[in-house]
Amino acid sequence: MLKIILQGHDNYYGIGDVVRLFYGPCREDRENGAVLCDLGPDMTLISAADASNALPVNRQVKRDLYERLSEITGVTVPWGCLTGIRPTVVAAEEGFDPRALTEKYFVRADKAKLACECARLETSIAAQASQKLNVYAGVPFCPGRCSYCSFIAQDVTKHLDRLHDYASAMILEMNTLAPYLDEIPGTIYMGGGTPTVFDENDMSRVLEALRNTFRPDGDTEFTVEAGRPDTITEGKLKAMRGNGVGRICINPQTMRDETLRKINRAHTAADIVKAYETARKLGFEVINMDLIAGLMYETADDFLESVKTVAALDPENITIHTLYKKRRAGMSREDVLNADGRGDVDKAVREAYEFLTGRGYVPYYMYRQKDTELGLENTGFCKPGTHNVYNVAMMSYDSSVLSVGAGAMSKRAFADGRYERCPNVKDVSLYIEEAAKCAEKKISFFDLRRSGR
Ligand code: SF4
What we know:
Layout: E1 2-7, H1 12-23, E2 27-29, E3 34-37, E4 43-48, H2 57-73, H3 87-93, H4 98-105, H5 109-129, E5 134-139, H6 163-177, E6 187-192, H7 200-214, E7 221-227, H8 234-242, E8 247-250, H9 257-262, H10 269-281, E9 286-293, H11 300-313, E10 317-322, H12 333-337, H13 345-358, E11 362-367, E12 378-382, H14 389-393, E13 401-404, E14 409-413, E15 419-423, H15 428-445, H16 448-451
Parallel strand pairs: 1-4, 5-6, 5-13, 6-7, 7-8, 8-9, 9-10
Antiparallel strand pairs: 1-3, 2-3, 10-12, 11-12, 14-15
Helix pairs in contact: 1-2, 3-5, 4-5, 6-7, 6-15, 7-8, 11-13
């Protein structure tokens, strides 16, 4: 068993993060000031705070342990010891200098460059997002569950019979808020789940309520996550256009029919192209398409083919996700990256980035999920000037987001740098009963009775 004894600090969390990068699950033994990992080698190491180091202690101890475990195992990971913090935040702190990320945190050169490029754009978009209120409308339902789905907080296929009631509850929540709102939002984002799971009538009702409540103007970025092509109809797309939606996401995840079938998506690549062409015909200004690298049932080369097929459609935004799956204990990094015969996903992702930048896309936001099997990142690419402000607003500490819908999280950013969160009830049935109460809670949270916001 590997035992790490903490000296002069209590960063159990960070030490655990670093141990997991190399060996998998571990546990804290706070009574004895240690982190233990049954899957590690029989060894005891000391993790000591070093007051002479220029890094904050929490980062210094992670850095030191990463360096030591990397020497012991001969393994390095793309993001080095940067865990538990968004790489773009650190890149901005380091003055967008990729060398600093590599030298201080062992971030691989290509990832350091990516983080700095994203951070530059993210910083200016975040400044824009903080100027105005941002709005989120959540629809946590899907017509079926994709086999890779990481939306574990709730079963997105449960309660489908309550969609109509759910639409009515969202409208009630918005109607209760409406008299207290006097600010035109900078962004509105209808996300999920799959918001287009509503039928055409409910889709129109909810979009009208969004328009009437928040009164978007020509400068408001209004996005709907149309998600799965099997839920997109011309009628729903027309309802979006008629209510001021300028941006949609049509998310193939892969353009390979066999994979689509195996991951439980009830549509084909041809359906994706058809939905895209209909959206183009109706004049949406920006279309985003999501793809996933490292999907089970397909190889890294299959993923690259999907990237090329989607890029040939010429959407303004392409977002590359890497499969979110908790890392399995005892797997080496090579095992992980080649799991199930997928080939070198890390390399394919690098090639996809090069391909997209070669076609004029630039990376503008990125985030990482903790303890993922592949240890990579999710990156949004856009044609210059077509970035989605909401995607950055939702991650920024300086932007306020007013959210409606079950489980939707509002956040309020204050001028002194603080921010607070206010969740709606998560349970769909409870939300349907308590939508007006959710609105009342937010009226207090944002101090809307007194100040508008
Ligand atoms: S569309 Fe998204 S949220 Fe819905 S089941 Fe698939 S992965 Fe999960």
